[in-house]
Design goal:
The protein has about 270 residues and is an alpha+beta fold. It folds into 2 domains: about 80 residues; about 180 residues, Glucose Permease (Domain IIA), CATH 2.70.70. Helix content is about 35%, strand content about 20%. The protein contains 5 helices and 10 strands; from the N terminus they run ααααββββββββαββ. Strands 1, 2, 3, 4, 5, 6, 7, 8, 9 and 10 form a 10-stranded antiparallel sheet that branches. A hairpin with a 5-residue loop joins strand 4 and strand 5. About 5% of the residues have low confidence.
């Protein structure tokens, strides 16, 4: 190579014409490559920013989940320390044994005078009550479900272990399991009315208590994923968490009535 001058080394092996063509080709390719490189660099920067934001969101969610679990534990401890009624107003075991349906149980309770009943005024609360659980109404009063079954109440879909609260000040007449409804509570907000809530997984109150509006009654059933499982689930790596349902029935003089006029629920 040293026998050739430097200028000759720059010449394409195919000659000057081939070198010129290569130069023109590179002149066309280099700007395109630079443009694609800039696009890739910008994409990498956006991916880096998204990963940083995802990491921060993951940390925030993990802290919030830990706080939620601690709040649930604190609520359970607080309720455990409440003064309990001297004794249940009814024989729950006998009621369960004698009742073949939820209608029978509610009717039997309606015939029993509770030891204490909140003051009247329930009629004036039409359209002002909040749903007992944060969720979506799946089926309304008398509306058929996918199987063609109609129920004289509301079916509300909510998250697993969602908190269930009392929609109104009422006497808790019954709290416990019943048939295949899971745990149920029956409230008496006024002498002629009963509010039936069925499908709870855990109850934190006892029969005979006076429950104020918004106070917890218990939680729905189901399994709430742990923090890491929840985070993975949101990426689509795990199947969607199954929701739970709460059944709500309002009764007047022993007969179910449409509860929707009483609740300020979203349509």
């Amino acid at each position: 190579l040293e026998r050739f001058p430097p200028e000759a080394r720059l010449i394409h092996p195919g000659g000057s014409l081939a070198a010129a063509r290569s130069g023109l080709l590179m002149a066309e390719i280099v700007p395109t490559l630079r443009k694609e490189l800039a696009i890739l660099r910008g994409a990498l920067q956006r991916i880096s920013a998204l990963r940083a934001a995802q990491s921060r969101a993951r940390d925030t969610l993990r802290r919030n989940l830990a706080g939620l679990q601690e709040a649930r534990a604190a609520l359970t401890r607080q309720l455990a320390g409440r003064d309990r009624p001297a004794g249940p107003p009814v024989d729950a075991d006998k009621l369960r044994a004698d009742a073949a349906t939820l209608h029978d149980l509610a009717a039997a309770l309606g015939r029993i005078a509770p030891p204490a009943t909140p003051e009247d005024g329930f009629e004036s609360m039409r359209g002002r009550l909040a749903l007992p659980v944060n969720g979506t109404i799946l089926h309304r009063f008398g509306e058929a479900d996918a199987a063609g079954i109609t129920r004289p109440g509301l079916v509300i879909e909510a998250a697993p272990q969602a908190l269930v609260t009392s929609p109104v000040r009422a006497t808790l007449l019954y709290a416990g399991p019943f048939l295949d409804y899971g745990e149920i509570v029956i409230l008496e907000p006024a002498p002629e009315y009963l509010v039936v809530l069925a499908g709870l997984g855990h109850i934190v109150r006892e029969a005979g208590e006076i429950i104020e509006p918004g106070e917890p009654l218990g939680t729905l059933g189901g399994l709430q994923p742990a923090g890491e499982e929840f985070l993975i689930e949101q990426t689509g790596a795990l199947p969607e968490t199954r929701s739970e349902t709460l059944y709500l029935e309002l009764r007047r003089d022993g007969a179910p009535i449409d509860p929707m006029p009483w609740f300020a629920a979203k349509p």
